[in-house]
Amino acid sequence: MPASTAAARPHHRRFSGYDYSRGAAVFATVSTEPRLALFGEVREGRMVLSGFGETAEAALLEAAAHFPAIALHAHVVMPDHVHIRFHVPPGLPDPVRIFGAFVGRFKQFSQWRIGRAGGPARIWEKGYHDHLCLSRQMIDAVDRYIANNPLKWWLMHGDRSLLHVREPLAAPWLPPDAFWRGVGRFEPQSGRKLVALRVSRRIPGREVPGVVETCVKGALRGYCYVSTFFSPGEHAVYRAVAERTEAPMIHLRPDAIAWAYRPTGLEPQLFAAGRLLALARMEATDAPADRATLLWLNEKAREIALGAGGAAAYARFEGGRVVW
């Protein structure tokens, strides 16, 4: 191949359409082979490193020091894998080779030191898994994922009661025309007032913060929102209530809740705190949510709230302003 052609080809690993010489935020996972739990254990949602785990973390920090162009922003050492988010600056020659060498140096340092300390002759699986973070939102999501990983591990492998799938979930406040599957320890009999929440997609983005503030104030007054949290406005309310209050929520999911349920996003924190109840119809599938399903769930949210002596709130945009 002519040198000029090779030089013009963008550097890439997983994403062939991206030129890594522009700079990149990378999320990488390195796993032990064959999933050896060498690095410690998770207790009460916190990672407690073993001696090998401390060695692995020290090797990661040392590898980062050997590659000053690579900025290590977030990491967590788990029992059998390590998550890393790092930044590759723009203008590096052959950036994919450089960040591959960074991960390789980490594996080399940790393997050599753990082996000398009596550990296995081979620790790591071949290669590593990497994802390109293409937006600030994705970077924030990855950082939350890394920070919450020990808690998520504990939910799934430690205190299994926190993610116990109840099927069928029978409760007097649930509409009787469907069988329900539920996850979470929160029970609406906690004295909070249930409020079915629906926020129209037609509300302009500039008006959403006002809707969020109104809902946060309601949560602080003792409201428990029941919603699909599907529209952009509803999702914004979900995040704000989760992060700024101690209020519980009931999430009506259009998709299925599998027996091997894996919490995502803010769910690990909310489940662990007993602040979230996820509900889905037993016959639900993982097919994309359609309008008919969401409208049906909105009606079920209304029935749940009113049946428990609560209320229904619908924020929409009329006459140039938000009305409830």
Arithmetic mean of pLDDT:
89
Roughly how many Å is the radius of gyration?
24 Å
Helix percent band: 25-40%
Q: Got a strand count?
A: 14
Task: Name the beta content range.
Answer: 15-25%
Overall shape: globular
Distance between the termini: 65 Å
The main sheet orders its strands as: 7-8-12-11-10-9-13-14
Biggest sheet, in brief? 8 strands, mixed
Keyword list:
324 residues, alpha/beta, Alpha-Beta Plaits, Rossmann fold, eight-stranded mixed sheet, 8 helices, disordered N terminus
Task: Write up what this structure looks like.
The protein has 324 residues and is an alpha/beta fold. It folds into two domains: 3-158, 2-Layer Sandwich (Alpha-Beta Plaits); 161-323, Rossmann fold, CATH 3.40.50. It contains eight helices and 14 strands. The protein has helices at 3-8, 51-66, 95-116, 136-158, 208-220, 232-244, 267-272, 291-307; strands spanning 24-31, 40-43, 46-49, 71-77, 81-88, 129-133, 165-166, 180-183, 193-199, 223-227, 249-252, 276-281, 311-318, 321-323. The chain has an eight-stranded mixed β-sheet with strand order 7-8-12-11-10-9-13-14, with helices on both faces. A hairpin with a 3-residue loop joins strand 4 and strand 5 (81-88). Helix 5 (208-220) packs across helix 6 (232-244). It is globular, with a radius of gyration of 24 Å.
Produce the secondary structure layout.
Elements: H1 3-8, E1 24-31, E2 40-43, E3 46-49, H2 51-66, E4 71-77, E5 81-88, H3 95-116, E6 129-133, H4 136-158, E7 165-166, E8 180-183, E9 193-199, H5 208-220, E10 223-227, H6 232-244, E11 249-252, H7 267-272, E12 276-281, H8 291-307, E13 311-318, E14 321-323
Parallel strand pairs: 9-10, 9-13, 10-11, 11-12
Antiparallel strand pairs: 1-5, 1-6, 2-3, 4-5, 7-8, 8-12, 13-14
